């Protein structure tokens, strides 16, 4: 046993999650969310009028999953960051899973065409 598979021969959850988050589309999405989050934090820190709406952009980019922790957690910059990071990771996992499923389906159907 190398620790990469369970007793039934299936891959473990962390390894599967690594494959899904390692997809190019998921990585591009995560990079875009990171850039938006940094931009929003910089703009909000520089703006002294307390009317900056820059924080809305990363929340929209990571919606709907970022809205759940954003609404449930107390207010504050740290919780805002946690919410956006959580939303970005969940959405990136879904994007990577969909991309891998579409690639697998395309290869599967190409083999059947005769």
What does this structure look like?
- The chain has 5 helices and no strands.
- It has about 110 residues and is mainly α.
- The chain is elongated.
- About 15% of the residues are buried.
- The mean pLDDT is about 80.
List keywords for this structure.
mainly alpha, 5 helices
State the shape. elongated
Question: Helix fraction?
Answer: over 70%
Helix/strand/pairing class, anyone? Answer: mainly alpha
Biggest sheet architecture: none
Oligomerization state of this entry? Answer: single chain
Q: List the uncertain runs.
A: none
Beta-strand percentage? under 5%
What Rg is obtained from the alpha carbons, in whole angstroms?
19 Å
Count of alpha/pi helices: 5
Kindly state the mean pLDDT as a whole number?
Answer: 81
Order of helices and strands: HHHHH
Kindly report how far apart the N and C termini lie: 40 Å
Number of strands: 0
